[in-house]
Design goal:
Elements: H1 12-16, H2 20-36, H3 41-46, H4 48-51, H5 53-68, H6 72-93, H7 99-120, H8 126-142, H9 152-165, H10 171-184, H11 186-199, H12 202-207, H13 217-226, H14 232-239, H15 245-250
Helix pairs in contact: 2-7, 2-11, 5-6, 7-8, 10-11
Length: 260
């Protein structure tokens, strides 16, 4: 008996989340906005993000991909697990994570999924963007996140409001960027900053004082040409330290591996 997939097999969301380079771009972009979010102290409360920002990336990816590439029942179980983990943190801190903070994370996944694919592949159609929104709306609804926009145009409006209201440069921002540099090393850290410049919304760029010089754009064109020749691994190796080589490789999902 065939199980119903949580995300349609032909969905653009599976294309986006089935490629390692797109996923790495999504989290490069999100890492800038995470550092500015007024609720980033919640991630510092557990200590996991500053202690191992790259490990945190892969653990977050595993949950997201379990949802995108699983059957409906398995995906809903993963969503329930995320809700339980957050509830446990709230209990330990004797406080509640604000609904706007949950929405912010969901909005980042929508926004950077779209932007990363467009930088690396092509422009998405409106219907494809709506598809990305609908998938993550289902995730947010499954987590009982309150106040979610119901349509993609509503999301676009609310996204801009959240960017204006919920971001600030703080001591957490300063420290988190120190951790990025520490765990990546000087060269990879510079590549991270360059990638963030290409993906960051205007408000994020302003708060982080990004200039408009993006020297890796020409290399991005070369990278795209190298993909058919299977030489793209060289560029991916520049993004993260060697010990993460196998994790990066595992992020690529072929069509035959998409079981549901």
């Amino acid at each position: 008996m065939n199980k119903k997939p949580f995300v349609n097999k032909n969905s653009i969301v599976r294309q986006i989340w089935g490629k390692s380079d797109t996923i790495l771009f999504i989290f490069a972009g999100a890492s800038a906005e995470f550092a500015l979010n007024k609720a980033v102290d919640w991630l510092y409360f557990t200590g996991k993000l500053p202690a191992d920002p790259i490990g945190r990336l892969f653990s977050t990816v595993s949950y997201a991909r379990q949802i995108v590439f699983s059957d409906k029942e398995t995906a809903e179980h993963a969503i329930d697990m995320m809700t339980t983990i957050h509830a446990s943190v709230e209990t330990k801190r004797s406080a509640k994570i604000p609904d706007w903070a949950y929405r912010d994370v969901l909005f980042m996944l929508i926004g950077y999924s779209i932007r990363s694919f467009e930088v690396l592949e092509r422009k998405l159609t409106l219907s494809e963007k709506e598809e990305v929104f609908n998938v993550f709306y289902k995730v947010g609804s499954g987590m009982n996140i309150q106040g979610l926009p119901k349509t993609f145009p509503e999301w676009e409006t609310m996204r801009q409001e959240h960017l204006k209201q919920n971001l600030e440069y703080s001591s957490f921002t300063f420290d988190l960027y120190k951790q990025y540099r520490k765990h990546l090393g000087p060269l990879r850290y510079k590549i991270l900053l360059q990638t963030q410049k290409m993906l960051a919304p205007q408000k994020v760029s302003e708060l982080l004082k990004f200039n408009k010089i993006v020297f890796i754009k020409p290399f991005l064109g070369i990278y795209k040409l190298c993909r058919p020749l299977k030489l793209d691994w060289i560029f991916k190796a520049l993004l993260l330290p060697p010990k993460y080589k196998m994790q990066i490789k595992s992020l690529d999902i072929t069509n035959t591996a998409m079981a549901y």
